[in-house]
Amino acid sequence: MTTTLKSFLAGLVLLGSTPAFAGQSILSLLSAESAESQAFSFVLANQMQGSGNAVEVLLCGQAGDIVLKTAPAAQMAPITPQGASVKALAERLLKQGGKISVCAIYLPNRKLTPDALIEGVAVANPKDMADKVANPAIRVIGQ
What's the rounded Cα separation, in Å, for the pair 32 and 119? Predict the structure, then answer.
């Protein structure tokens, strides 16, 4: 693992676990295909939400499969060391008050409608998301 990546990961962990950073708005952009990468993002999102930050996750591409009512097997399999599936980690974030959206092009490209998503997941509005990404008061992280 490169020094830059280690520093980035350490910073994300500190962001979510240090009380001095509580109260921030965080937007996590997630389009990674692997379940491990998805779990990594949701573990951090849950930590940040639990530390008093307002976390929103925007899913696009195969990452959107996480929040389907009938998610693929990869999103349902336990990931170690958490022992929870990616879908369970996403549901935990929603229960903590975090927000999850799928990108506006996710459902139409799969010929699905919003009722295919688990309860609490929204379809993102591109303009609203663009405004959030451009807002200097919102920390944007992603993979």
Answer: 22
Q: Model confidence at 20, in pLDDT bands (50, 70, 90)?
A: low
Strand residue runs (E) in the chain: 25-30, 54-59, 99-102, 121-123, 138-142
Sign of CA dihedral 71, 45, 81, 2: positive
Region of 122 on the Ramachandran plot (φ > 0 left; ψ -120 to 50 alpha; else beta): beta
| DSSP 8-state class, residue 119 | T
The single-letter code of the amino acid at 20 is: A
**CATH no. for residue 84?**
3.40.1260.10
Residue 134 belongs to some domain of the structure: yes
- The pTM assigned to this predicted structure is 0.84
Between the alpha carbon of residue 102 and those of residues 27, 59, 77, 106, 126, the distances in Å are 13, 5, 21, 6, 10
pLDDT in tens, 51-99: 999 999 999 999 999 999 998 888 889 988 778 999 999 999 999 999 9
Tokens of 132: 């959030």
